Amino acid sequence: MGEEGVGDGKIVGGTQVEKPVAVVADARALASLAHFRDLAPRLLERLLACAVVSPNTPLLPGVPRLDLITQINEIEARKEEYPETVAFLRLLNSLLAAASGSLPAPGTSSSASIGIAQRGSLGSLADGAIELAHFTSFVVHHVLAHLWQRGYRCAGQKWEVAAACFQHLELVLDLAARCSLPPSPSPSDRQPPGFAVLHDLLAGGPSMQALLHILLPGFSELAALKPLSSSAPNGGGQQLLMSGGSGQAGGAALLLGSTPASALQSEDVLALKEAAVTSALRVLTAAMRMDGAFLASLSRVHSHDRYQPLDMQLRPQRRLSALVEYVCYQDSAEVQVEAIRLTTELVQRLPNIAEMLQQQGAGVGACCAVRQGFAVSLRQSIVQKFAIDNLEEGSGGSSGSDPRAALILRLLLRTAGDGAYAQLPPGSPSFAHLLLGYDVEPSVGGVKESMLLPRQEYSVLTVVEKALVYQGGLLSETKPKLYAQCLSLLHAMATSPVAGSPMLEHLSPRDLQLIPALRGVLVSGLPPRERTHDLAASLHQRSWILRMHALLLLRLDHADSIELLLAQLLSPRGDGGGAFGDDSTMDIGTESAPELLPHGSVALQLLQLISELDVPEPQLAEVCSSEERRLQQEMALGDVSIDALLTQPRAMEAAGVTMLSETGDTLFDVGALYRAAMARYEQYTSRTGGTAAGVAPSGGAAAGGGSALTELPAAAVRGALTYAQQYNTHVLLRGAHTAVAQAWAQAVEVAFTRQYECLGAALRSAGASPAEALHELLSASLVATRRVLARGDAGLALALVGVARMLLSKLQEQVVVNVSLGQPSDPLALIRTPARCHELLRCILELLQRSKRTQPVRVQLYGALLQYLQYCRGSKLSAATPVVLEAVLEGWGLGGAGPHPTTPTPARAGGALMLSAAGQHHNGASAGAAAARLDATQDAVERGNAALLCEQGPSLVELLARDALDPASHQLHQALALHLLSALLGAPGGDEAQAGAIASALYSSNVPQALLQLMTTLPHQVLVQPSGKRARRSVYVIEAQLALLLRLAEAGPPRQRQLSAQRLHSLHALQYATGCGALDLEPEDAGALRGSTSAQLDSLRYRLHHVLAPCLRLVLSVVSSLPDAAAVRDGARLFVEAHYRALDRVLRDAAGSGGRDWSPGERELEQAELVTSLLTRLVPVWGSLHPTHGEGLRHSLYRLAATFCCVDARSVSPYVRSLASLVGTPGVTRASVLARATRVSSLRAALARYLCDAVAQSNVGESALFRCVGAGGSSGTRSELDPATARPSLMLMRELAEQAAVDAAQVLDELGELLSLLRAPDSQLDEATCSAKLREYGPAGGAAAQGALRAAAQAESNGGSTSAGGAPPAAAAPSTGGGLPGRRRLARHYLALSSSRLDAQLGRCLFSAENALAVLTMHCLRYLPRPFPLSTPNGGGDRVRRQASGQPTDHLLDEAAASLDLHNLNPPTEEDAAKLGSHADLAYFMSRLQETCMRVEELAGRCAEPAMRMRTLDGVSLLVRTLKSYCAMY
User: Helix or strand or coil: residue 1071?
Assistant: First the structure.
């Protein structure tokens, strides 16, 4: 038809009303032309020029109004037939749909279609079709307003007219939604017709009344018409309506409007009514998407109190239930689709819709009907061939596409998320609870208590469960996204705060074999890369299944369920569950018998899938040429170019060209990007003189002719859109890839950290052990990381390295807990072999070389290497003391053991006091063989490690040094690199060349020099900066730097320590430490330390400790390693003098009594011990110190000795007094008390060593260094410090010896008890004993000990307690941390560790006692006359008598003097004795000393006990006998 014929239509003015058939035929012809989109805008312009519906203009008097208003009111109403009205509405709707570019496909709304609007497609409708306002007014006020009042010769025409009107409302609402004009506050103002419709709907006008008139009867009225029809196909009426008489419906199709109403048969009434209901539901859905923003815009300019949002108008229960229940109408998929869409909008606005449907008047029937309606709709749709799998992709051109399943699942996911629960009152059910079959009926205890389990009735949950296993998981391949959404729904409900526990119990394999039946999905193949959305959905399927595995393993307490899930994930055999069930219409197959998987366990197969899948990121330079890139940068609007829209996140967000996908990925909004790019393209072409031609995305045609454009600017825009599409594809795949990698990591982590004890039973059928599965997965993770790093995927490599670190941590824990002494029952016997250890190390070192450009991955690998080195050290018990090792082996039935070959004998090197040497005691060949196997394996592991590290030493050190010394690097990364360097320096094994390789590489890289230079400036800068997390981290970096220098000073075997210290000293280490001004900073006053723990951590006192203590250790190590070097002593003296105030403050703080909120703690005592040890090394050169400094430090040391060297009952130290109060305190373990006692005994040993050396170096000719008592005389309380000299008294030294003897006796008692428990066989360690000892000696807050205690309590509550030596019930063993045998092993482990600590504590106590007795003996030998001189006042007979009675002679005194290096002593006189005190004071002192000697003799008499057998107390006995000889004089 030509354009000239358009204006001559016979419907103009409505003059040919007597020829309705001809008018309708013309309208039909024009409607068919509307499908040619290039003609639709011109046809619409011609229609507007016609007077079909006259605008609201005044008419001339006497001139009749001849338009459709007159036609419908005067002519058609009398005939009760409305052919011309229907024909005009169909023509208008067709032209609107075509001109706006939003012609909806059958079964979908225009707003749901996804695409890019072409340039110029809106034409004159860009302002919301404001010229069509009078047409819309005609529809609303003249057709819909009287819809239910007019008569209809045929009942079907009422629904036909309503459907056409509602379709028009939907089209104008869609145009208004895309309009940029603001709404007018008055409905009578000139505005887009869609806004006028919203005014009418919100005011409850004719449009709203017509909608309710059509919809409120409900679906039952539609269902009642079904028997009158002859099985019409779904959506027949809708197809008749939407066809518009075009060829889409076929030439023989029923032509609505052209056929007389009487010709309509009864079977067509149902189809027409379905079409009307469908269009009405669409109008409500479109309006609900707009009314919120519409009212918000109106409220800014005018108040509309009479307007109500649509959700408020539809809130009454009758209306709400009638609309939602349309989903129950099974005879029309279109009605169900629109009902689902409307329900989605209602649920978003009315979160408590589930409770509203239960309001009085509805009863239980409404909820049941809605639940079953959604379930049936989902069941009908999800297995259909044409079911839409991805709403974002659309129907794919298929006219029979079914979006019901996708819409229902999207609705459920929105109402099952955390955001939905935030809008609900606590405990209230969501709409997802209703559809999934939860009991949402109110009960006495409230809704929350009634939601116990999913109800056993037909619901969406039933359909979802059966769909997941339909024909062996067929839907995972045919409908991958729907399948993934089903899994996501189950996971969302299982993790929800309200429905989590019921869903977890429901999904438990004990009750439902659904999760085990999904094993086939995990190991199935992936779709090809060309099917991007299917591939992403398949990856998401695996991620949700793995997340549910992890969740069930974390939350369930059913041993059988946990074992089944673990077996499915980690067993090399495919141990799966049976079938979910059977259904007559949905085929649910059963799983076959378990078979050996060809590529290992499911976890290993998934890891291989994750590592082999490559998702390369598209590059803009590869999509666009350089000239196109230049044009993209030049085509800008303001300062934002097309290139910025593609590459700069801020510009993307500001321009609104991004969006979020359903899975949370940030994508390009291609439509918004197209519009933004076209705006810049048009400006560019207008600026350069070109013509802005249309640009369509790849595969599309340009508007205005459809010819492909060849000019370069258009190619640049097309390239940008192509890149955006490729980027979206990459992001979707990348997000899915990341999701499955994270889910795999979660499942593996939960399996090995929370359910490791159950792995033994789970893997028993496959003949594997938990340790083997752990090592296999660890090796595979490292290999997968290597594969991923090779292609440059740093993000995925970071996730895989995190898993490897977790597995290494678990392996390290198993090595620590399981005493690896080469036993046949050792669970790590086949894992911790040299070959496997070295393979792990090779892989880690190779990965470190590959990660030079990816710091996050490299830092994680640093942690992995550090964990590996700790793992190779073996169990802590491998370094146990000989007596403990003997007891452990005897408890295992291996007999006694000799001294451990790697355990050094404690002795004082170069001193006059010789401590006991370990005796040679061999009891049993089996014990020796076990120790030999351990030593051989350990030696092979260490030698291989040393060889590999020596080979990679230079490159590895260079890599670590770069991160450790880079100031721009994160503080934690620097600290980790420094700690790893320290660990590499301390790695044992290898020859001397290998041992020094790392140290040589460090010196070659100038790392020690750089660290020493930083000592003079960096610590001070860090300590004076404002407090906070960054400041604390910087302090930790300094601490790690000083620790590395300390390890350099002690590098190599013991025989090389002196050379290592000399090498570091040659770099002027002591001079740099002397120049460290940060050590002299004054911390806060002790009384000012108040507030929270965080505030105390930010205090200068806390931060200064982490600098001062490592620095003191470094100086002390150098001085101790080079004791005879004059330069070293001189450097140490300069260090002490330079930091005199700091050292003096440390001693004074430790000796202080504290304040109200602070008292000296472990940090203060540790610093005091280091200072005391350093000053002890300077005793030989004490005279060279500045007099002020020397006397000040000596006075502070004496005051510290008076505080800590007296008996505990008289100590003024809060730290010492708290020890007695902690014993027996609830919540305080014996292990924590022992740790505090160790700190006190260490400080006492350091003070005893200093006092002994100071007395030994004092001159004999001077006055006595210490006096026997203070000024109190022989009566009253004795003073620890002599008031006359401010020095310790001999009474204090006596108290030190006595307290050390008391402590040693207590330690010996406790140690004997623990050793007896270690020697006891398993049959004597019952449940009560194991639990008590774990509670007493386990670490506070330790996961292993606490887990074992919980398991013991659970076993006892379940009646699973066993008798001594009995085994726990088999059913309880997997869930109780390995049962009683596992708790026995753990108890033995902590008992052995505590025994080793006690044994070391015993050595410190004996050391303090020996030094205190030595001080007393030296004073006696120097100042007291010999007890039995050659001639005595009583004559020689008395001497003979005493010799006969066994009293000591001069030989004893000479032997004691020789042992104390006291040579050429002049015989003391009574005048010398007076220097120690008066005769009364000496008599009182000697009486008390006699008691102390007896106590020490009692301790020495216990040398036959096992803990004392390897200690020789000859030196102590000699000193005691010497002192007793002097006591006999008084």
Answer: helix
